[in-house]
Every structure is written in C-alpha cells, then in structure tokens.
Design a protein that fits this description.
Strand order of the largest sheet: 1-7-6-5-4-3-2
Helix content: 10-25%
Strand content: 25-35%
Shape: globular
CATH topology: Alpha-D-Glucose-1,6-Bisphosphate, Chain A, domain 4
Number of domains: 1
Radius of gyration: 15 Å
Structural class: alpha+beta
Number of helices: 4
CATH architecture: 2-Layer Sandwich
Order of helices and strands: EHHEEEEEEHH
Largest sheet: 7 strands, antiparallel
C-alpha cells in the first residue's frame, strides 16, 4: 500500500488553447458551464446565474452522485485566475482546492494551467477520491475546455 506522504498532493496539468483568455474564463467562471468540460465526470449541474465575479462568492454545484457542493471562491482575477474550496452545504471546506490560471500566449492563444491541491485536506473520507485525481484527469478537463473554447462541433 502506498504511503500517503509519497503521493503528490498538488497535481497540475497545462496546455495551450487556441482561444483568448476571456472566452476560456467565461466557461470556467460560469458554474452552469462546468459540467460540459469536467474531465472527472463528477459534476452534474449548476443553476444558471451563478457567474463568479470575485473572491468570497459561493456557487452551488450538484455532483453526479447526487451530492451538493458549495464552492467558496478564494482566489479571483477576472480573465486570469479563479480557485475555490468545495464543501458540503453549510460546512467548513475540508481543505482541497481547485485552481485555474490563464496566461495569454499571443495571437489568440492562452496557456491554461489547472491545479488540484489536496495538501490541506482534513477529511479522511475524501482521500481515496483525492488520490485518484491525477494530472491526466486534470488534462482531460483542459482538453474538454479547449474543444468548447475553440468551437469544436463535437464538444460534449
């Protein structure tokens, strides 16, 4: 059995997307759009009208297993950076963070970095899922996001 201390607790993936940062950011900052690009097949739906505009906001997401998560936005820079801490409704976040960073790379291309940080996770029940969230799963989200942002017809 792998010792938890041997696993990377901050996992990230990145790639360039042929779309401007504003277009990509709209897909990330609007929770109703997130299930369309989720590479973990974990997000079911979010009500429209929750577009994030700043740190301190909370958006609500229903998961594929029927659970509901309140996501507290802890980092926000319009068009560049957004990060949130998920939690069960009316509970303190257990300490895992999702972050998106967008960097213009010139000529309508944006470098997208997606990070999952579970280094402060306090809920042992979430460890199995945290350990299963690999760079490949993060890259799958970026790939889905790219298909949407680049206007691919076959985007889910």
């Amino acid at each position: 059995m792998t010792d938890i201390s041997e696993l990377p607790q901050v996992v990230s993936a990145e790639r360039e997307i042929a779309a401007d940062a504003e277009r990509i950011f709209e897909l990330i900052a609007d929770p109703a759009q997130q299930p369309r690009w989720d590479g973990n097949d974990n997000l079911n739906e979010a009500a429209a009208g929750q577009r994030v505009r700043g740190a301190g906001e909370v958006f609500v997401m229903a998961l594929t297993n029927g659970a509901v998560r309140h996501n507290r936005v802890v980092e926000f820079e319009e068009g560049r950076r957004i990060a949130w801490l998920p939690s069960e409704p009316d509970q303190e976040p257990p300490g895992h963070l999702w972050r998106w960073e967008l960097e213009p790379a010139g000529d309508g291309v944006t470098r997208v970095i997606h990070t999952y940080d579970w280094s402060r996770l306090t809920d042992p029940k979430r460890l199995v899922r945290a350990k299963a969230t690999t760079a490949e799963k993060l890259l799958a989200s970026i790939e889905n996001l790219a298909a949407l942002a680049e206007g691919a017809e076959n985007a889910r």
